[in-house]
Fold these 4 entries.
Entry 1:
Amino acid sequence: MTAPFAARVDAQSPEPGSQALIADRVVGQSLPAPFYVSQEFFDLDLDEIFSKSWLFVATEAEIPEPGDFVTINFGTRSVIVARDDQGRVRAHHNVCRHRGARLLTEPNGSTGTIVCTYHSWTYGMDGRLQYADAQAPGFDKSCFSLRSVHVRTIAGLVFICLAEEAPSDIDEVAAVVEPYLAPHRLAEAKVAKQTDLVEDGNWKLTMENNRECYHCGGHPELLNVFFPTWGYSSTDAIPDRLAPAFDRYRRATAELVDIWDGHGLPYPRVEELDTRATGFHIERDAMDLAGESFTLDGTAACTRLLTDIPEARLGRLSMHLQPNMWLHITSDHALLFSVIPIAPDKTLVRTTWLVHRDAVEGVDYDLDRLTGVWEATNQQDADLVALAQQGISSPAYVPGPYGPSEFQVEAFVNWYITMLRQRLGISAVRAA
Ligand code: 3BY
Ligand code: FES
């Protein structure tokens, strides 16, 4: 007999068929269709990936002053990321401690206190309950602070983790990436533009698409400055069509290494995408043409540089983090991407362009020139992701092989499957 009031469980075990798919994943191949199309895997991804990993959610530049906030939703979970009166970045569950109403409904804004619409319970930006009308004698406000969410800032980037216990390796990752990021002074930058693009595909297809440049022929604007050789680890694997680009890449890299060394900028590639809970990659890389920025001729889009280093030609700093971010930083601006699942076949890609806080639009930069290359690239990526989702939704789809230049796609999928296995207690059927 079942109990009349069953205890609430946060996550269900996957169905046996899904467990078998997780156990049986074939290394080097794209995933079977249910991972991309089923509601069950979508829910599992929210519970096991997005609720237990560190997630990139905002930049400090979006909440420069006390009282500034952004809200961000992962399925039914909504989080307030705010700057408190002491200037610290805080994260709280967006759920009232009275009878649970959603508190802040705007995607961003500024407020002195967080006031619940329902019965006016009022919280400070630090999450403490300040006011609750008409309570019984002895009511202790200190027992009803907002439930906090782990938050961590790294060189101006804001990460949260929804788990009770967050992966502890974030400290190790921060220690590696901070010296790369710090010279770009993102915490002191300002937002030049932010766009939200909804892609008609599963979030994993968005991530997989980002992790390779095999498809970069579809990005004519980007390819003016982004070397299509990206992802090819040895000359053996380079197709003939890429040989001229590879020659330019080698020359540009040799010149940039001198510049990076001259300014003490770290540049070696660190690749730990599927060997830890907070999988990441970071490197400084050369860019084509003028090598300064993501513009059609490669020259800086913003004349007021982000860094104090008086050198526009720095190539790009690239960082990839599992499960939901990547970034590019050039001398003049930073480009941050965060990926938020909406439905099995819908994904939000948020792109944020940062420039120096004193840079003036129309004087130091033209917004269309600053954003044009990646606005075009994002739309092209969205179209490719939609095509992938459509094909994978056909019963005719069977998983296909990754080539050598798709090694970061394999790393992403391997990280994803490894996390599901660890967090659900599922063993691999075959040895990797
Ligand atoms: O964003 C990246 O890291 C690049 C852009 C093109 C493909 N991908 C590897
Ligand atoms: Fe928020 Fe009642 S639910 S004050």
Entry 2:
Amino acid sequence: MPEIPAQPFPFAFEPGAVALIVIDMQRDFTEPGGFGESLGNDVSRVAAIVPTVKRLIAGCRAAGMPVIHTMECHRPDLSDCPPAKRLRGKPSLRIGDAGPMGRILVAGEPGTAILPELAPLPGEVVIEKPGKGAFYATPLSDELARLGIRQLVFAGVTTEVCVQTTMREANDRGFDCLLAEDATESYFPAFKAATLEMIRAQGAIVGWTAATDTILAGLQGGGD
Ligand code: C5J
């Protein structure tokens, strides 16, 4: 099998069975006035990865890989948002409240949309998820089975919340997981660093990590 140089050791991949999954690159997490900022975060950190995520998406599409997009969002009646989630913390705007980009994390609102630069192409799978993990209460498992996917390259935000949760869910379901180190970000640099460490610790207990350019070079080489 072709390999991508990665940590803690090379990631052997199966051409035709690997997809890119882009987690929650939504305005609500990356732009002022959204959910991320309402929690007191500086969103400029996560917004800075957009060009890198764009390059990764373009390279994966060029390599013929499926690209899957996720969005953290809830139904307008919030019936899929448990009080335990909605009432957590002391945000300036709670999920479902009206903000400058529409209702926070509600499906169909402007702020909930994926950033236009990273918009899904027609036919790409888009998973709307009510939880932090993309497998919980979604059709993701069925979509991956339909596409014949056994390995996932991860990008998106935030590293230690929705990205890590989904990676762990995927790892438990038997997928090999590779995280693009510079195509993911957290509001907290220390949390990102710790997440990368814990993912690849103990012989890739959750998965592998590598830089975007390394991943793209490896994928292109493997397609020859
Ligand atoms: C958070 C996410 N951080 N997409 N969501 O609430 O990581």
Entry 3:
Amino acid sequence: MFRHHDGLGRPVESRAVAERVGVLGGTFDPVHVGHIVVAADSRHALALDRVLFVVAGDPWQKRGQVIASPADRVALVRAAVEPVDGLEVSTVEIDRGGPSVTADTLEALARPDRELFLLLGADAAANMPTWRRLEETRELCTLVIVTRAGEPAPAPGPDWDVRHVTIPRLDISSRDLRDRLRTGRPIDGLVPPAVVHEIRRRRLYTPTDRDGDR
Ligand code: ATP
Ligand code: MG
């Protein structure tokens, strides 16, 4: 309960309205417009106050694949979300260090007056059975499965509190973007202009920078 004042300045008790926070975890190596659409459409569909892009520090299921540093990936996400209302970057996983485990992240973001919505693309949702601390994850959030039009939505167990959001099919992946950059093809339109600029400025994903994708 929060204390408020009525129109006459008298204190009144009213039920606290929980802040609704979306959590979009990812490697974001690099962030692209598919990620922005997932976040913005989910925010709209579920009336979320804001959506946090939680940048993975050490995505244990992608060992050996991540090629930009956490600081670079955070800078790219920051550039991507800055112009969009209600979208923010969170470094909670990077700051904590160690493997990125969703339940740990949700615990770190939990507050008494905050409701957490875990946003997952269909591919990420299909991968859930392999997650660590799955039971705890279920207790901590409402699951939001974001499917691309025409794609089947994976069904988590019956115990999960689930919402579904459908977005346009955007066949864009970070892996394809890394391939494009390595081979000198354009990425314009697939990532926000500010991200194109940051990638160039930081000389990321080019063969001269690293040996390229493994
Ligand atoms: P990679 O190609 O390296 O696997 P990615 O493009 O899939 O990268 P991730 O950082 O792995 O990006 O994804 C973060 C989240 O965004 C996941 O929940 C994933 O399902 C979702 N996602 C990624 N790309 C899209 C897309 N084009 N449309 C909808 N959701 C997406
Ligand atoms: Mg992926």
Entry 4:
Amino acid sequence: HPWRVSRPVVRRDLADLPAYVPGARSPVGAAAFKLSSNENPYPPLPAVVAAIMDAAEDVNRYPDMFATELTEAIGASLGVDPAGVVVGTGSVAVLGHVLTAFCEPGDEVVVPWRSFEAYPIAVALAGAVGVRVPVGEDGRLDLVAMAAAVTERTRVVLVCTPNNPTGPAVRADELEEFLVAVPEHVLVVLDEAYVEFVRDADAADGLATFAANPNVVLLRTFSKAYGLAGLRVGYAVARPRLAAGIRLASTPFGVSHLAQHAALASLRARDQLLARVDAIVAERTRMLAGLRGQGWTVPDSEANFVWLALGDHATTFAERCARAGVVVRPFAGDGVRVSVGEPEATDILLEVAADWLR
Ligand code: PMP
């Protein structure tokens, strides 16, 4: 009982949560490249910087709470009803709002694992119980096992596609079968943080899936392809009735005026930004081919990172990369995720990888 101790006590279950360890904030040493947080290596476009500067004039006022202009622009760009678009401070915050809006204490959320490390934390914070379903050796989500893990208490299933940190995207046919197997009252969240990097013709089409399935919610972000990680803008796309519920759980005025205008300017510059995405995808192809050519087994990546399943050697490999000038992201005992960035960084990574096998 908290009143028997003489100091405030933090919720005990929070202490048991795995920490969300961010990639190193800044590279070690002047020549280092940061490949640890799946960020966009390109600086913001001048038009985006200009929009941020203009918006700065109004920061004595609260932002538009519902980000009307932005949700309308997102709706128009995707061909969805803007009433179904809910923005937040990064899609990680929006995910928290979705879980808070749909889960009551003790409800179950099916999550793939290993996947985005924020999932178990967000689920626990919402008071729900995470049910983990292992990702296959090939880095692919096992949607058959995930559907089988659904019980009477399941309220939400998280489908990360492409999966962070392993890379593959779910296929259209397997997602279709999965949605037939999952009861219609279960919310299926397609976390499409990396959707702009997908090139596999067999990959599921999130928007088409959303159009055909009222229980599907899409989660997207301006942090990756659009290069606005530092401003924190993400969003959910849901049926308007569900979106209204997610809005109830959202932080009031969460997305700043600067962030709203930067996101709007980014949508206007979409073609230019997506050309950069093409360059990152080309670099991904080079990194994958380079690694496979050396003899590495690497899962297909449809995102802006590749996964090296190094097991117990993950931390040592990451240390070697850091010494060579690239900061990568180790998951101790499991593997190393390398974001795709500058070509020079790929060259260094490939050198370290070749050395490692020698
Ligand atoms: N989903 C996935 C799968 C991610 O990898 C990330 C970022 N690492 C996010 C969501 C959250 O991104 P943000 O909060 O910056 O939108």
